[in-house]
Task: structure prediction
Amino acid sequence: MADTTTEPIQPTQPAQQHKRSMVLIDREFQLRFISRLGVVLFFYLLVFLLISVVAPVAFTLLGDAPDWALTETAFRVEVLLRLILAPLLCTFLCLFAHGVIETFRIAGPNFRFKAVLRDLAKLRVPRGVTTRRGDYLRDTAVEFDKALIVLHDGVRDLKRLSAVASANTREALQDAPQGEAAAAALAALDEIGRRLAGYELVSAAPQCRPLEGDGAPVEPIVEAVAAGESAAR
Result:
């Protein structure tokens, strides 16, 4: 008799979801800016202490002043530190905190611009770049966005025209005698098509997701080429 015992079904473990937080700011640029800001504020604090505390005490001691002058200088320095130093430190800390917050409005566009340049270096042409509403460099982003749109659409049209030219050339040379000139022309067209195929048209950076299909309308220049082909036939 066959053994009909079955092993207990083990409950399936849910797949672990690896979540990754997207950092849309340039951390290296931000940390470098914050460090320089801290150094500058610390330097200004040292200058203030040098002028208001060290200089009066040094002049008093070097001038062989009497005891009452030393006492008066010490009293003035104490009052100065007690009344001004604490508010000054608070002011510097507030300036530092404000500078840290402002770095996000600069590091964000810098990250997006770098993402676009990295895509262009990989022959990926994004159609535009956007920044947040409160970011700086918005005028630069607008000009950058216009240039990317023109470049993206130009490469798209070149791909279409290359396909049309290759098809028309092959059709024209189909009944022609084969020769070196015809072979060279076909090889050149194939090379142009191969190089244009290396360019990837993607959506707006930094997501860079491929476009869903090619539902863009035919440009007037492509329509003119198509009309010329029909007239020639």
Notes: Residues 3 and 179 are 76 Å apart (CA to CA). Confidence is low (pLDDT under 50) at residues 1-21, 206-233.
